[in-house]
Specification:
Layout (H helix, E strand, L loop, with lengths): L2 E6 L7 H15 L3 E6 L31 H9 L2 E7 L7 H12 L18 E6 L4 H10 L4
Parallel strand pairs: 1-2, 1-3, 3-4
This protein binds flavin mononucleotide (FMN).
Length: 149
């Protein structure tokens, strides 16, 4: 049976992102997958990558060694056949929680070697869900505030 991990990277449970993440997970379950939905902001405290380079040390290659709230999540993703990630758009970007997960998930697999590009044993298909609600006419104004325009 395929295993799908679905993660709501919004601090709000039961709102826009969570609803879509759970719907996507339900669709996967209907197709026969084993699914688990995780609320990122309900995990024990976690941070983004702290650049300890533990994941580049023999014995831990490709595995984040930081034992915080994301540790088990990263292991679950490693064993999953598919990943559903949902984030609200915050100031034109993903949420801070999403970004922390993203740093930790990706950096552990980077090898700094040309002969082997990734410590990940396989590719995991990802469904990315973004929710937002700003009206088009405000976009330009927001981008200007952020210094992009
Ligand atoms: C801090 C913050 C920043 C936001 N920035 C944007 C934005 O840049 N563009 C946008 O379209 N919506 C923005 N929104 C609205 C959310 O992206 C939108 O309401 C989203 O669907 C909320 O997801 P949730 O219901 O799962 O929490 C922002 C909301 C918050 C709280």
């Amino acid at each position: 049976m395929k295993k799908i991990i679905a993660i709501n990277c919004s601090p709000r449970s039961g709102w826009n992102t969570d609803i879509l993440v759970r719907e996507a997970a339900a669709g996967a379950a209907e197709s026969g997958a084993e699914t688990e939905v995780i609320d990122l902001y309900k995990l024990e405290k976690f941070t983004g990558c702290v650049s300890c380079f533990g994941c580049k040390m023999e014995g831990h290659l490709g595995r984040c060694v930081c034992r915080d709230g994301l540790y088990d999540v990263l292991e679950k993703i490693r064993q999953a056949d598919g990943l559903i990630l949902g984030s609200p758009v915050y100031l034109g970007d993903v949420s801070a929680g999403f970004r922390a997960l993203y740093e930790r998930l990706i950096f552990q697999y980077i090898t700094y070697k040309t002969e082997i590009r990734s410590y990940s044993e396989r590719r995991i298909p990802v469904l990315l869900i973004l929710t937002s609600n700003i009206q088009a006419e405000y976009d330009a104004e927001l981008l200007a505030i952020q210094g992009h325009a």
